[in-house]
Here is the input.
Amino acid sequence: MKTLWIFGDSFSARFDHNNLHDNHRRYMEIIGINEIKTWSDSLAEKLGCELKNLARGGDSNYQTFQNICDNCHEIKEDDIVIVGWGLITKFRISYNNQFVNIHPQGEIKDYGSLSKETIQEILDNRLKDLRYSGKRDRYAEEVNMWEKVISVLAKNKKFEVYFWSSEEERLINCEPNKYKNKSNYLYNDSKEPLIHYVRKKGCTTMEDETNGLVSDSHFGAGGHNKLADIFYDEIKNLKIRYV
Amino acid sequence: MCKLWTFGCSFTAEYNPIDGIYPPYENNYDKYRRFRGGKLPKTWPNILAEKIGYEIMNCAMGGASNYHIFNQFIDVCELIKKDDILIFGWTQIGRFVAVNTTQNIITQILPNGHIEDNIGLSKNTIEEILVNRTHPLWKIEVMNWIKFINVFVEKIGVESYHWTSDNKLFNAENTEIFNDNKFIVVRDPAVINSKIYIDKHNMMWYLTHQDHYGGIQKGKIIDETNNEVIDGHMGEFGHMVQCNMFYEHISHVSKILNR
Here is the structure.
């Protein structure tokens, strides 16, 4: 049986039902369900694949790429890999003997010998510099390099790989056509981050599904189900076969 | 003709910077060339390529961080063909990259290196990042890239070898590394079993040790030029010793070369 591999951040992750975010708990209480089936669960079923979802909420793109490197030996011929990039501004530090991913909307605080001023400066350095609009975004280029090497690996190992970007305006969908006209970008015709695009196609968020009671832009159960349909259709349409 | 691809920092790169644009100012390599009567010796990648009958493709750059070294590989990854051989010279883990917001370019930031004042990061921030990067956790990032590269090359019938000028990244003390032929590390029993040598896992220390040069220091440019050119990179004899050590390792374990 082939495997569907998922790498990315919270927009790709499954839920750890033993350690649920407050928003998810509240959402499930309101909707009256015990678990949320994510788009990756449904998509794996539709594609007839075993699911290995290694995405984790809050992960930076560095962590996502590291997870790919760490698992690439397990990816087999005919497997399907979907990589969902997150915000470029996110980065990693070492703290308390583990990598901690720093999120631009998270609390800016001291992390041991890394002061909050330093964290803020790094975040500022990683922001889009409007002076260079129209020029190559250097931090986006870093992700593009990873896409390139993963795609060549996929060609050599004969597995399929697809990339998408959830909420990042600097990757894929908002880029000039000459950079995004690659066949393995999901919905590269979109000119906005994919979560906005798929919402217009009917993917509802927890906020939509609770009439604003849960203020969270992540997908609700209905949204996940719809996204699985959308990704399934897109993958079938792309028909990328590296064999 | 098969290709020998080399990736790394100044310990792999060709002579650069060279040819000062404002004479009489001279870079170290200009001075070294003058000392040698106008001709620079071949670097170890070139000597090694000749020795194994391969075409050299040296992608290394002086001052490169490991991020840059990995990108050197990505830049050419689709050009690598069956039976090619790759050698990666990984550098100090502390080095990192940031965008120079004045010029919109990626800048390599080095511990003890010159810090440009137009990067967009303050000196204090750079120092704090450098301290954070002394944690051994950062090794994992590079070791994962190595894992990726090894999987990548296996599928196309290519061999990859890895060495480092930063012995904190990997060395023969780790049994897995010691037993893995993809890693070129100091395995000399006379050295690694010694209780005297403190730097025994440091490849650059090992390659420039006087025992390789008949008991006198002459591996580095500074040694070869009798302190006239203050530069710790390899000179003629150092490049030969490094080439010979790598050749001995690769010719012994390579399935491609022994086919």
